[in-house]
Design goal:
There is one protein chain. By secondary structure, the protein is α/β, with parallel strands linked by helices. The chain contains eight helices and six strands. It has one domain: 3-Layer(aba) Sandwich (Aminopeptidase), CATH 3.40.630. The protein has helices spanning 12-15, 60-77, 94-102, 135-145, 162-165, 182-188, 191-210, 231-234, and strands at residues 38-43, 81-84, 107-115, 125-129, 153-158, 171-178. Strands 2-1-3-6-4-5 form a six-stranded mixed β-sheet, sandwiched between helices. Helix 2 links the parallel strand 1 and strand 2. Helix 2 (60-77) crosses helix 7 (191-210) and helix 4 (135-145) packs antiparallel against helix 7. The radius of gyration is 17 Å and the shape is globular. Zinc ion binds at residues 13, 44-45, 51, 60, 113.
């Protein structure tokens, strides 16, 4: 059953994403949920927008980019075309992200975020969508994430975030756990765990397109984002294949506004 984000009193990260009220009329919504050939992978935040910020680890914008990059590799390995809204630490306006998703023919859109709450005990996965054509994809991603050991299922919900509200194609926004929670914040700082997150999301997307059993997990990708690694791991050489692109600039200290 769907609920609105506004009654939940959490998800500061999500509040940052709301915007104006323009919505495509229902007849313009495209149902590519089982026929898509491209996936627009959106790493939340970036540049001057750090997203959720914790002193004990990298800000949300860094871990979203890491999961999004790992996810993009896995989807390409499964013969899907991938468009990333950002591949570095740059600020991308929400409307530009919407333009990218709506300008990618025969696509779906997956936005990667981590959550935040003033109540540090709050934890778990949440997946959001708006178009009814995205409901099944949202449920599949949520189910796969909740198969991780110790996962807490906070449910699939409709929401008015701009990137899902203005999307013509099926669009979902995935909250991959709470950085404000001690255990989920620690997990988010772990590259192996982020690999698992990307793997579960990739499996849901590939099975949505090609059917259950179609996904074949590839070997773990090389480290793609040095800033997402704990300090002690950063001292080790980073093994990245040619063409992976440069590491990110150091994160800024600005967090979410009030
Ligand atoms: Zn966010």
């Amino acid at each position: 059953m769907s609920r609105s984000i506004w009654g939940r009193g959490v998800a500061l990260c999500a509040l940052f994403l709301a915007g104006c009220k323009t919505v495509p009329p229902p007849q313009q919504l495209k149902n590519t949920s089982h026929t898509f050939t491209s996936v627009v992978v959106d790493a939340g935040h970036g540049g001057r927008d750090s997203g959720a910020y914790r002193r004990s680890g990298p800000p949300e914008k860094v871990v979203t980019l890491d999961v999004a990059t790992r996810l993009s590799h896995k989807l390409r390995d499964s013969q899907l075309n991938v468009v990333m809204t950002r591949t570095g630490d740059v600020f991308i306006p929400l409307d530009t992200r919407v333009d990218i998703e709506n300008g990618t023919p025969n696509s779906i859109f997956v936005s990667i975020h981590f959550n935040d709450s003033r109540r540090r005990g709050v934890k778990g996965f949440e997946t959001y969508y708006r178009s009814p054509h995205a409901a099944e994809l949202a449920q599949n991603i949520q189910s796969k994430l909740c198969s991780l050991k110790g996962a807490v299922d906070r449910g699939v919900h409709t929401a008015d975030f701009r990137v899902v509200r203005k999307a013509l194609y099926p669009a979902v926004l995935v909250e991959c756990g709470y950085l404000s929670n001690r255990s989920e914040g620690r997990e988010a700082r772990n590259g192996e765990y982020r690999e698992l997150l990307a793997d579960k999301i990739a499996q849901a997307i590939v099975e949505q397109r090609y059917g259950v059993g179609a996904y074949h997990r590839a070997p773990a990708a090389a480290v793609v984002n040095r800033e997402a690694q704990p300090q002690e791991q950063r001292r080790k050489p980073v093994l990245a294949p040619p063409g992976e692109g440069p590491g990110l600039a150091p994160p800024t200290l600005s967090g979410h506004g009030p």
